[in-house]
Structure formats: C-alpha cells, structure tokens
Design goal:
Blueprint lengths: L3 E5 L5 E5 L15 E3 L12 E3 L2 E4 L4 E9 L2 E2 L5 E7 L7 E5 L2 E9 L5 E6 L2 E8 L20 E3 L2 E5 L4 E4 L4
Antiparallel strand pairs: 1-2, 2-3, 4-5, 5-6, 6-7, 6-8, 9-10, 10-11, 11-12, 13-14, 14-15
Length: 172
C-alpha cells in the first residue's frame, strides 16, 4: 500500500508525494511521486476534496476541477470541470454522498452576493443547484467570505458568512 498525499500552492503546480519519502533534493531527480506543473492555473489557497477515486481542486479565478486517480497517479489534466469560475481565493470544495453513490461536490463562490454551488461528483459540468437560481432571492446569504469550506451534516449544508452561518436544506 502506498502512502501518498497531495499538495498545491500559489504557483499552480500540483504535487503527489510519498508520505514515507517526501521528496528531498537529489542531483538526478526531485523524488516527487508525481508533479503536475501548471494544472491549477490560478493558484491554490485551499484544500482539495476526495471522493470515489477523484480529487477536486478549486483554483483562484478558474473552474472547479476534477482529477481522476488511476494506479496511484492523477490524470495529467482535469477529467471534468465546472462551467462557473471562482474568483480569488478560489473555492474549497466539500463532498456529500451516500457511500459510493449520489456524490455531490459543494463549492462556495466568494462574490456579492455569495453563491453556493452543488455539482454532480461524476461530472462537474452538471450543476445540480446554485443559490442564485431562486428568482425571489430566497437562497441569497450576503456578501462572500474568503477561505471557507461548506460543511455537510444531517442533510443540511452550512456555509460561514460575514456575520453568521447560512443553512441550506430541503424545503418541506
């Protein structure tokens, strides 16, 4: 079993490293398990999400991206991406699911008003919901807030706002 982890930063590079041998300089190579240079064009200021063999990253000024993992290697380019782009600082996705089924990737857009997006985890091109869709403004929750991750619990999605917490759930 491999002990791998991912990391990315402002340079737009994504790195997969062996947790038991995290690189170290070598004159013959960098010892990184897998570098993906420039795949996160806007840079990263958040953590990724993981679900069913797919890694989700939300770079600044870019689309939410999904990278499939096969044989302990990330796809060299995204296998799926959202239509929406996410302004600075990008988005920190979160996933809700029923085991290995019905995966939803949640992403917060730092705009005014802020927007909560829900995507089909199998294809980010398929947006299931966004809080700007309600014509009456019912789902708006104020100006954006940087560096937050939606939290999912008990069938609800919680999003930090500038003055509290917005709670999203099914209408009954």
């Amino acid at each position: 079993m491999r002990h791998l982890m991912v990391g990315a930063g402002k340079d737009g590079n994504l790195y997969v490293v062996n947790r038991d041998n995290m690189g170290k300089f070598s004159a013959t190579g960098n010892n990184i398990w897998q570098p993906l240079n420039g795949v996160l064009s806007g840079g990263i200021w958040s953590t990724p999400a993981w679900y069913n063999g797919t890694l989700y990253y939300g770079p600044a000024g870019a689309n939410l991206l999904a990278f499939a993992v096969t044989s302990a290697r990330l796809a060299a380019s995204p296998t799926s991406e959202s239509i929406a782009t996410f302004t600075y600082p990008g988005t920190a996705p979160a996933v809700s699911a029923s085991g290995n089924a019905n995966g939803i990737v949640w992403a917060h857009e730092n705009s005014s008003p802020a927007v909560l997006h829900a995507y089909d985890a199998s294809s980010l091109a398929h947006e299931l919901y966004n809080s700007a869709q309600a014509a009456n403004g019912r789902d708006q929750f104020g100006s954006g807030n940087k560096f937050i991750t939606p939290t999912i619990a008990d069938g609800k999605v919680f999003v930090g706002t500038q003055s509290g917490v917005a709670v999203f759930g099914l209408l009954h």
